[in-house]
Amino acid sequence: TPEILAFIFCFQLPEALLQERDKRAKWHGIPVLLQELYESSHLNSDFTRTHTVLKELSSLLSMEAMSFVTEDRKTAQESTFPNTYTFDLFGGVDVSVNIIPKLNDDLVKDCLSVLYNCCICTEGVTKILASRDDFVLFLFTLMTNKKTFLQTATLIEDILGVKKEMIQLEWIPNLSGLVQSFDQQQLANFCRILSVTISEPDVGNDDKHTLLAKNAQQKRNTSPSRAEVNQVTLLNIPGFIERLCKLATRKVSEATGTSNFLQELEEWYTWLDNTLVLDALMQIATDEAEHSSTESSDESTLATIPLRHRLPQSMKIVHEIMYKVEVLYVLCVLLMGRQRNQVHKMLAEFRLIPGLNNLFDKLIWRKYTTSNHVVHGQNENCDCSPEISFKIQFLRLLQSFSDHHENKYLLLNAQELNELSAISAVGVTSLVCDGKKGLLTRLLTSMKREPPDSSFRFWQARAVESFLRGATSYADQMFLLKRGLLEHILFCIIDSGCKSRDVLQSYFDLLGELMKFNIDAFKRFNKYVNTEEKFQVFLTQINSSLVDSNMLVRCIVLSLDRFESQTEDVKVVEVLSECCLLSYMARVENRLSFLFRLVNIINVQTLTQENVSCLNTSLVILMLARRRGKLPFYLNALREKEYAEKYPGCLLNNFHNLLRFWQHHYLNKDKDSTCLENSSCIPFSFWKETVSVLLGEDRTSPCAIIGYIDEPYMELDRDLLED
To answer: Coiled-coil regions in this chain (predicted)?
Structure first.
């Protein structure tokens, strides 16, 4: 390869000849320096010259690395960074990797900086280092030394980010002792590395996100993934979760100095690539403080002012915020893993939620930050400012913490828990929030203050919705209804002018959970939507994207069915007769219209975790029809719709395939089936039975789809699921 030839060329040519060639090629003396580095780094050598050479190389490469992080990385070419390219071409990476175990702490630090700068600017170097497992594991041993911790952590993070096969944490020598040796600052930065090792890899291809592809992958991979194994390894480290909870909830003093550095801070962050760079700045500030007594500064020259004077209090706050982003991410991933109950128990015991509640006003939501960025998924990289990232990660954590778990009541304080107990029996615990407001109430307050299109609204709504998810709780709904949540949601959907599909989807889902089976909620709805104009705006928002609003449609259909069976209740009868929303859904032509569109906007190949709810909502409509003996009427209506639209067989063939996939998907997944049962209050046995009836092979059956497809249009793809 060119690299090997260059390596031989560098170490076999006489130095004089190499210097002559260097002048013509403008190599800036790098091959000669590498030759000296190689020759001066043997075990019995005097490392004085090694130190000098590494300093020179570091200087040549660091300028290009700084240029790289301040420019557009996507347009960067190798020719833009000739020094780094030359260093790599002449075997500089191999020399550095081979000599680093022989060096003392100061030399190791310089050598790590050289490697990191090379990784930044030269494509492929990071991947080469990642392929050397022995080198990666050796890097972890360097983290025991405070002097080399930052440089080592930075390099490890970059390497693990491109490594084809995820490293197993149990391979790291004495991992438990290593983690326990970290101070809190080091542990927070180590979380940045851990996040790569405990998160499932992003497949990076939308086709692989389909449920069909995920099911096939699960068949191939029956054993726990490396990410899952790593999660267990972390949980087995004594005191690990407790220390993370302390990090996440420790307080920071409010900024007392000048605040006009905030804009500058945001600009700095565009090139301050990660928390570790901020650590370096803080370390410099500390060092400056130690030597300030022997130095003077010229106030007129910014360059001579000690860094501690140029680091405003706001930067210290951002520094702490960035720590917490990493810690909350790790806790969030662990909460969503297979050991969820174990993690929940520990987070409750170590009072994570009360601690976050105490930080809410002073740190988490200390100011209202504009956020119009794209909503990111759990494992996606985010280029947001530190405060935006912190808020989103905090809301993700609340969502994971509350979802289908009794510990959600820890988001209340004692008074709020007593209020809830007055509606329904809820056990009181000493682990709830302190202060005048619980975390859930603070979240609702901040939610109402956000601008209409703020993407924080998406995460806020998801966090509140998770509090309601699971078996429907009238007490939980009333707690939120009394705090004006329904009116706030309707304002956002109807009157605020919100155009964000993500935000609207989260509000539709939240509204569905808030109103489901709750007659008081429908009465409040009718009081707010008190004109035909408002109601039409509401319907337009629902109909504009059924993928986004189908959960709300499901809630209305289910609630209507229950209310119609409670005609002995005067209050229910009154609301049924007056509520425009219930009256609208009571008309069979409207339910059929929703059914047609729900079946038509999905197929087996495009089913994802996001849109599979459309299939389940269509099933809910048909299950309720079956209960009332109306299933044949609905199936015949689907057939008539096909002929009216001049595509006979298309709709019913598609629905038949979808239901076959439904059987394949849900009959093997206990969690999903439990969620379906809890959210609909329809026994899962009735779900399975209805699907079996619809997929019956007897063409004479009035409840089998096959009986409504004429023979010439039978296009059932029986090999689809096997493929």
So the answer is: none
